[in-house]
Amino acid sequence: MPSTPSIDLIALDLDGTLLAPDETISVRNRTAIKDALTAGVRVVLVTGRGVDVPIRVSKELGLNLPVICCHGALTKDFGANKTLEHVPVPLEYAKPMVEFAEREGLAIAIYVEEAFYRLQGSHIYMDDMRGPGWFEAPSLHDMLTEAPTFLRFLGEESVTQIVRAFGDLPLSFRHETWCDFVECAVLNRHASKKNALAKLCADFGIPSERVMAVGDSRNDVPMLRWAAIGVAMGNALPEVRQSVPYVTAANDRDGVALAIERFCPPQSKKSA
Length: 272
Known about the structure:
alpha/beta, Rossmann fold, Hypothetical Protein, Haloacid Dehalogenase-like Hydrolase, Chain: A, domain 2, 6-stranded mixed β-sheet, 5-stranded parallel β-sheet, 24% strand, disordered C terminus
C-alpha cells in the first residue's frame, strides 16, 4: 500500500465542512487546525461565500494565507487588503441575465464590489442573507457598472428559468442543493475552487502532491480530485462521497479534525 504523502497545505471548505450546522467551529476542529499550523502546515479557506465570513474565520483561527471566495472567482489577501485574483462574469453576459431576472421576477442576488445585493423587498431564503455583507437595491441592473464576481439564482423556479434561457452561454452554472432548497451560482467559466487553489499553491511552490482538500459540495469535487488527499465530508451528497477516495465524518461530528488527524498525524509533523 502506498505511503501517505507529507502534507504542506490543507484547503478547507466552510459550509457543510469546517462549519457545523449552526455555523460554529468545534473545539476539536480548532485544535486540529492549530496543531497543523504549529507543525508548519499552511491552511487556507476555500468557499463559495463572499469575503466577509472567510476573513472573519481566518482571523479567528490565526490563518495568514489569503482566502479563496466566491467559488474560486475571488482570492483576497486580507492582511494586505489586496485582491490577488478576480475572475468575474463578463458584463456582456451578466447584464441580459439580470435584466431577464428582474423582468420575470426571479429570485436573484449579485456579488459586486465584495458585497451581495438583492432587490428591495425580495424574499429572504437563508439567515446569512441578513448578514452585514448583504444589501438591498431598487435595481440590480443599474448597479452593473462593472463585471460582477458572480450571480446567484435562488429557488427551483429561478434556477430552472435562468438555465433554460441562458444555459448555452459560455459560463459556469454551479448547482447546489441544501436539503430541499436549490440554487445556482453563475460564474466565469474559468472560475473554480480548483483553479484558484492551484494558482495559490503554485505561488507558494506547493505541488498538488502535498495538498489535502476537504469539502462537501459538488463544486468542491474538482478541487478534491486535484489534491493528493481529497476528503469528502460524511454529510456530503452520495455523488460527492463516491467521487473521491476518502470520506470523513459529518460536519457535526468533527469531520475536519478527523481528516487532519488521519493525514497530518503528530509523528509526521515538521519542526518549526
